[in-house]
Amino acid sequence: MLNLVLLGPPGAGKGTQAQKIAKHYGIPHISTGNIFREAISNKTPLGQIAARYINDGNLVPDDVTIGLVKERLSEADTSNGYLLDGFPRTLPQAKALQEIGDELNKPIAAVINIAASTDELVTRISGRRVCSNCGAPYHIETLKPRVAGVCDICDGELIQRLDDTAEAFKTRLAVYTKDSAPLEDYYEDTGLLINVNGLLSIDQLFSEIIALLDEVNE
Ligand code: AMP
After folding, report:
1. Could you identify the atom of ligand 1 that is nearest to the CA of residue 32?
2. Whose CA is nearest to atom 10 of ligand 1?
3. I need a labelling partner for 176 at 20 to 30 A (CA). Which of 5, 27, 125, 187 fits?
4. Residue 28, pLDDT above cutoff 80
5. Which of 118, 105, 116 is nearest to 16 (CA)?
6. Looking at the predicted structure, is the pLDDT value of residue 58 above 90?
């Protein structure tokens, strides 16, 4: 059982690495951001709540997000492990995750923290694209699709996220610094934190993460 969390500022490459890591170990990739975006495009009640926060770069309230993750981790496909991408993002979420893990007997084995400088993040975000259908991540320079503007996986249209505009991104970075950065200390104290360098290329970073996780998974 390999239960993992990916931490890191917006644009550090969490989504890209999460997809690859989850595929490598055959565990579900659970992205709260993707779940919210899907709910918004399907106009569900959850989507209506999430839309009030996401587009401006603010966090969806903890009670909504924690309830969603608890439900998702109760599903059978997480019995051999899971990879959380974008959760937890606040200390109350981290504490709730600890309780959920204990209750469901699916405790966290490792927390990978992808670090990157603000300058690099701004450059990456401006070139980032995402599949409007399946949520797969792309970049106009570093992670191009086979056909421009079209998703390799599902042929969906590639779009720029509304919260990747300069203004919303500024808010997201500020929110990260205030609410999410303290999680690094929290997980450092629990001995679960593994720091990796988000400035490496996608493939180099992936190899490094797998080498580190294979040690945890022994
Ligand atoms: P992401 O795709 O992980 O960058 O998430 C996009 C947006 O979804 C965030 O900026 C938040 O508005 C919302 N979101 C995703 N995960 C969480 C979370 N754990 N807590 C609160 N809001 C979240």
Report:
1. 16
2. 57
3. 27
4. yes
5. 116
6. yes
Gap between the Cα atoms of 88 and 186, Å rounded? 11
Ligand 1 centroid distance, CA of 26 (Å): 24
Q: Is 36 in the pocket of ligand 1 (CB under 6 A)?
A: yes
Query: Phi and psi for 183 in degrees, rounded to 5?
Result: -65, -25
pLDDT of 69 reads 97
How much is the mean pLDDT over the chain?
Answer: 94
So where are the chain's domains?
2-117+168-216
Q: Which of 41, 48, 59, 69 to mutate to test the pocket of ligand 1 (most atoms within 8 A of CB)?
A: 59
CATH code, residues 2-117+168-216: 3.40.50.300
* pLDDT more than 70, % of the chain: 100
Q: Is the pTM of this model over 0.85?
A: yes
